[in-house]
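User: My instructor asked us to take a sequence, write out its structure as tokens, and then describe one feature of it. I'm not sure where to start. Here is the sequence I was given:
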Amino acid sequence: MASTKSVRTSFMGISILSITLLLAVFGFWQYASRQTELTKRLDESLKATVNRLSQTLPAAIWSFDDASAKSIILSEMEEPAILGAAIIMAGQNKTVFVSQIKKGSEFVSFDPEKTPMTNRETEKQTPLVKDGQTIATLLIRYTTEFISKELFNTILTIIIQILIMDIVVSLVNLILITRIVIAPMKKGIDFAKQIAEGNLCVNLEIEREDEIGQLAASLKNMLTQLTYIVQEVHSASAQVSSGSQILSGNAQQMAQSATEEASSIEEISSSMEQMTSSIRQNADNALQTEKIAKKSSQEAEEGGLAVLATVSAMKEIASKIGIIEEIARSTNMLALNASIEAARAGEFGKGFAVVASEVGKLAERSQKEAGVISKLSKESVVIAEKAGASISEMIPNIKRTAELVQEISAASNEQNSGAEQINIAITQLDSIVQQNAASAEESASMAEELASQSAQTQSVMEFFKIDDRERIAAISQD
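Assistant: Let's start with the prediction itself. The structure tokens for your sequence are:
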């Protein structure tokens, strides 16, 4: 109601001010015209009076007929603006010949120099000429008070006209504003108040094509859009609430799963550390085995060479033993011949026969032992050759074994490096899983907060009262 009064008062104030300014301008023009007219009329009256006096007074002055001069002056003082007149003789003394001034309802003589003038009184002097000679000076004292009175009456008339026009215009504006502006605005204000109170089922019954009609259409459109927004927010908040609850459950489940995964990864990390330790130990053992295999391969090669040398030496010994057998056989033959010769010699050859017999026995025994040694040498050569062949066959296998052990050692080192990298990756994965668990817990907390905010939004949206069927139908048509 306060805003309605303010609009009415402002509009009426502007109207009254505009009309007042227009009438004031017109009144000022009327005042200036009246003032110009009165001033012009006064000047013309004074000019005519001066002209008449200038024609009639010189003869009376010339004949020193003061009675005629006085009568002439009094006849011209019937003009309301003329207060008095005086004839001042020419010459050094400047004596007053005749003077008359109004004093109440009477006319009395006065001395112009000793009788002061008021603010609205003015004097006008005109020379009186006779036969081309200035014989006196006519002094006329007049007032402009009647002009002020006339102008005051004019101003009063203008003010009365302005007041009457202001009153008439105010009444007309009051009626027109109330019917054209105030009533529709009151409907619009009530409509806006209902919306402000949350009632979106209200209707605005204004059907016009002017600015107020456009304002009403805009308010109706605002109501439609606001209803649509409220419905959308209500629906979105419900969906957010449902989604946030699902998100909260999923986040809690994910947090629990992340915690379990973190525990499993810790166990895997512990197992990987043990496996890495075992792989490292296997790598160390493989490295030592590689060294032993290399050494064994070298020793096998050296043993093969030694066996070959042994076989060669045994063959040499066997050949030498054959020579010894031949020597023993020859010695035995020589001993036999010596025995024969000793037998031929008789008595002298007995000692030699004994020696020859012993030599024969020794040769026979040497031959026999040499045969045994030769047999053993041959058997040893065969065994040595077999051992050399076996060793020769073993050397590639030992080398291959050494190469395989070297490959196993390299693979063990690679496994050790890979296990360490896997262990580092598992440690990083454990950190990531723990971060995911913390993020999942934070997501669950945020989902709960989102659900709370959604519930609060729904509670706020309950403030608005909506006619769902009509509004939804209107929005769907748009």
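For the description part of your assignment, you could build on this observation: The longest helix spans residues 211-345. Try explaining in your own words what that tells you about the chain.
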